């Protein structure tokens, strides 16, 4: 099956990429993340993915559209910012997969024990219905630890938060409280 894999970052791509290829799928990555803030974080993640792709000889489609302003407007107006974020990125992945003739799409966000898994799956299924393409679901969370080991082993940039400004604020506030 030809699968387009939405990639949030290189470390999260390592395990799903390996597993999907081992299962016999033809994998192409898709980098689209207008949620990442600040720009230096976005750039670090993009460059890390470029490095991984070069090391592994992996095809990646880069929608290098740093549309932070429109992302923030949508997230601030949303009832649930994570749902908005998942919908934004997975809808673009589904649209791209359909337009380019892929059989299915999925996301590396499915590896994270920190994401809202059920909400993520619902956003993927909704985008799949909207663009008449299969959302390939696999619970990659079992490979989270392995993904980190692979990433460290090849020296990939490892971020400390999901990428959005809200998550960065929450990380900072937690750190501040633990110092008190």
Report on the architecture of this protein.
The termini are far apart. The chain is 56% helix and 12% strand. The protein has one domain (2-179): 3-Layer(aba) Sandwich (Rossmann fold). The protein is α/β, with parallel strands linked by helices.
Brief overview, please?
By secondary structure, the protein is an alpha/beta fold.
Estimated share of beta-strand residues: 5-15%
Average pLDDT, all residues? 92
* Level-1 CATH class name: Alpha Beta
Number of strands: 5
Any idea what the CATH superfamily is called? HUPs
The secondary structure category is alpha/beta
Rg estimate, integer Å: 16 Å
How many individual helices? 7
Q: Give the number of domains.
A: 1
Provide key terms for this protein:
180 residues, alpha/beta, Rossmann fold, five-stranded parallel β-sheet, 7 helices, 5 strands, 56% helix, 12% strand
Please specify the SSE layout and strand pairing:
Layout (H helix, E strand, L loop, with lengths): L1 E6 L2 H13 L3 E6 L7 H18 L3 E3 L5 H10 L3 H19 L4 E4 L9 H15 L2 E2 L8 H10 L11 H15 L1
Parallel strand pairs: 1-2, 1-4, 2-3, 4-5
Helix pairs in contact: 1-6, 3-4, 4-5
């Amino acid at each position: 099956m030809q699968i387009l894999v939405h990639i949030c970052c290189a470390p999260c791509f390592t395990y799903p990429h390996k597993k999907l290829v081992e299962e016999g799928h033809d994998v192409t990555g898709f980098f689209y993340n207008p949620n990442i803030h600040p720009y230096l974080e976005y750039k670090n993640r993009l460059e890390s993915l470029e490095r991984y792709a070069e090391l592994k000889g992996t095809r990646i489609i880069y929608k290098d559209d740093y549309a932070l302003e429109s992302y923030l407007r949508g997230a601030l107006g949303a009832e649930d910012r994570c749902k908005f974020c998942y919908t934004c990125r997975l809808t673009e992945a589904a649209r791209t997969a359909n337009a380019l003739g892929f059989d299915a799409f999925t996301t590396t966000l499915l590896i994270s024990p920190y994401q809202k898994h059920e909400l993520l799956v619902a956003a993927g299924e909704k985008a799949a219905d909207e663009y008449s393409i299969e959302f390939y679901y696999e619970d990659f969370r079992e490979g989270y630890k392995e993904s980190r080991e692979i990433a460290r082993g090849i020296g990939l940039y490892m971020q400390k938060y999901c990428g959005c400004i809200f998550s960065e604020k929450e990380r900072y506030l937690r750190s501040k409280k633990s110092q008190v």
